Amino acid sequence: MKTLVALSLFVWSTTGLAQSGNLKPGTSAPDISLKNVTGETVSFTTFREARGYIIVFTCNTCPVAKAYEQRIIELNAKFAPIGYPVIAINTNDPQVSPGDSFEAMVDRAKTKKYMFPYLFDEGQNITTKYGARNTPTIFLVKHSNEGNIIVYTGAIDNDPEENKSDRINYLEQALSAVQAGKDPAITSTKAIGCSVKRKRST
Amino acid sequence: MSFIFCLNASGQEVGLVTLNQLYDRVDHGRDTIYVINFWATWCVPCVKELQNFERLSNVYKNKNLKVLLISLDFKSKLNESVLPFVKRNKMKNEVFMLNEPDPQIYINRIDSSWSGALPATLMVKNKKRKFFEKGFTYSELLNEYKNFK
């Protein structure tokens, strides 16, 4: 029986490997140049003293993203001053998800006093380039001699409901490693979240 | 195999299920096609497409089709959200809550290509399987089911 279970697990786990996903840790982070809720265009070079970036693919409407909103605000407060600012990007098409319109983003950023850019991904090109399919999804990027390199991708932590005594702060652990000049022990994680609301193909 | 069931007032049940329990059931299903939908009460596109799964199982109720609806709501929301939702919508398909602690393990065990975004659906018959990280209209679901048979 054990063999049977192991065998069937093997079959289950070896199918469906071919599909694309998030850009992998170790690969370079595509440049961004997107409109912020302030109306200005933001790119990596906007942050002259940054040593890296915490890119958060998120939105106004996803309950999981909302559950993480305060944590994202706090991450920026903690890590922007030491060179790792948050750059939030709304993944969703506003026609499919009206609550994620540019105007709604502006409102949200104001109400919650975002101290970081919240960018509108017109045409969803950056979301597609990074391969984000799920909100919220993090890409931790560091500056290096080879340019901007992704060092971690996935969830902020393993505790969406904020009720675990044994919470693992994946992103903060990765940041600590990067600051110490090391590779993070965990470079990629997954979490249950909301699908990116894709523009309907016509 | 032990399922823990919670009964709501109208008698619909929402059990907790581990992946081993789920896969064990599928492995013993012989020629049954399992359409396993992963959803949550907080997921708008999930809630929108649930009626399509109800319709499919109703239309094909004498065929070897079993629709299983696996909620990924937090377990703490069983009584507060999931049971009332199941009751309110008079859901006929079997509804479970996934009883797995670690998404780093269970997401890949459901499908390694899955990002974790909801909704998602797995079709299984014996060793044949197809995974979808998307929502379905009824005609899309019907097509995929017919193609899979």
Protein model, in words:
Chain A contains 5 helices and 9 strands, in the order H-E-E-E-H-E-H-E-H-E-E-E-H-E. Chain A has 202 residues and is α+β, with helices and mostly antiparallel strands. Chain A has a single domain, classed as Glutaredoxin (3-Layer(aba) Sandwich). In chain A, the strands form 2 sheets. A 7-stranded mixed β-sheet of chain A has the order 2-1-5-4-3-7-8, with helices on one face. The longest helix of chain A has 17 residues, at 63-79. Chain B has one domain: Glutaredoxin (3-Layer(aba) Sandwich), CATH 3.40.30.10. Chain B is built from 5 helices and 8 strands. The longest helix of chain B has 16 residues, at 44-59. Chain B starts with a strand and ends with a helix. The mean pLDDT of chain B is 92. The interface between A and B is medium-sized, with 35 and 33 residues.
Order of helices and strands of chain A: HEEEHEHEHEEEHE
CATH level-4 homologous superfamily of chain A? Glutaredoxin
**Which H/E pattern describes the elements of chain B?**
EEHEHEHEHEEEH
Structural category of chain A is: alpha+beta
Model regions low in confidence, pLDDT < 50 over at least 5 residues of chain A: 1-19
